[in-house]
Amino acid sequence: MIEQVNIGPLHFEDYQELLDAMKASYQGWQGGYWSPSAIENLINRFPEGQIVIKAGGVVVGCALSIIVDYKKFTDEHTYKQITGNYTFRTHNPKGDVLYGIEIFIHPDFRGLRLGRRLYDARKDLCENLNLRAIIFGGRLPNYHEYAGELTPKQYIQKVKNKEIYDPVLSFQLSNDFHVKKVLANYMPEDEQSKEFATLLQWFNVYYVSDLKNLFNVKTYVRIGLIQWQMRLYKDLDEMFSQLEYFVDSVSAYKCDFAVFPELFNGPLLAGFNHMSEAEAMRELAKYTPAMKDRFRELAIRYNVNIVTGSVPSLEGDTLKNIGYLCHRNGTVDRYEKIHITPDETKHWGIQGGDSLKVFETDAGRIGILVCYDVEFPELARLLADDGMQILFVPFLTDTQNAYMRVRLCAQARAIENECFVAITGSVGNLPQVENMDIQYSQSAVFTPSDFAFPSNCIKSEATANTEMILIAEVDLSLLHELHSYGSVRNLKDRRTDFYELKLKNKIQQDQ
């Protein structure tokens, strides 16, 4: 019975126990073992990189590593080259990769997940030192049994498919390492592997290439969703008085984003009620340039990024449904509604846009899809492929049925794209505006579905059909962990060898 298991640094006094465990682990090994001078050299050069696990106070496993400047070696190297002919002079504290040179567990202690602890300790070290990745050459100890019938590539694929069990590779794959390539002549004395090795890699998702930028990385993001009451306003100034009240309130709670609904400026249509619906919408579009400037000023003055929902906009004779992302530094980005509903086409003559992009902000990488667009999963997936962390969906729905289409699709987008999704719409009635008589909304923030998130995938939600501000805070670091360690990994597990998704005409520039 094991009384206690401890993991910690390797000390030179542990050498004899280390050697005994190493010999027991490499049964049938034709090569040599680490000498006392080699272990002492490793400890002196990189003490925190040499980790042992003890059971009952005795060494039963270890993980040895160095730091290398990987671009000097690339993916074409041998074990002898990467270790500097076993001198470890290749260790470079200013390098970018933690290179694993040894890991083993005494056979009497296998099946206790001790190897997993060693790999986890390496990953923690990689993250703490802000290194880009863990890389190492992995043995294929069972390959000699299949070398006459399978190439190394075929052997690795069968191990991946669990048609063959390899005590080393099978374990490495289960610990989130992926095979970059096959190395030939990696370790000439390794007869069991026929001198082949797998070059394995684990990415550090927290790696920051420029440490100066660490101070600008924002983990927690606070979102303010404005559930807007449709009420009549005599002019643009009166409407912006109400808008500024909401921006001021959201800013007072130190939100990073203030988000307005789709076509929130609909009440101004009342002034054009004597016109046809299509003509009235074109008149409303004439307010858009002035609104853009006012939103930009509010973003700067109140120090909050504003997603302006959407408004009608004229481009020549073409009427579109567009919105602006007004950054608090004064920059303005533009986005378009791509899919137009039958009513928008029939009553207003709105046409769909053709630009899609992820926006870099000081509070994460965001995407914006207007209402109906969220019901088309391809758009959100394209944004997720480009690194989107938060998806904002300003919408306008009249009935609860219409709202539920938006809501349920938004929840699906959060799960399948491993991102946060925030939706907001308008409430209330506009009896003097044709085709915008009633509105239904319940603003909400949705999450992926895994242990780090709410069990119902709802971070927060507003009271239905009530004018209010919904404030929610999301932790972007949870997304990084989900991408690599989630119970399921929707982004990584796609069969890109079988199908793919891409823009037919890659138009993603600002317009």
UniProtKB/TrEMBL annotation:
The keyword Phosphoprotein appears for this protein: no
GO MF annotations in UniProt: acyltransferase activity, transferring groups other than amino-acyl groups
Every N-acetyltransferase domain range: 5-165
Keyword Cytoplasm annotated: no
Pfam families, A to Z: Acetyltransf_1 (PF00583), CN_hydrolase (PF00795)
Keywords of the record: Transferase
UniProt superkingdom: Bacteria
InterPro entries linked: Acyl_CoA_acyltransferase, C-N_Hydrolase, C-N_Hydrolase_sf, GNAT_dom, UPF0012_CS
Occurrences of domain CN hydrolase (ranges): 221-476
Family: Belongs to the carbon-nitrogen hydrolase superfamily. NIT1/NIT2 family.
The protein's name: GNAT family N-acetyltransferase
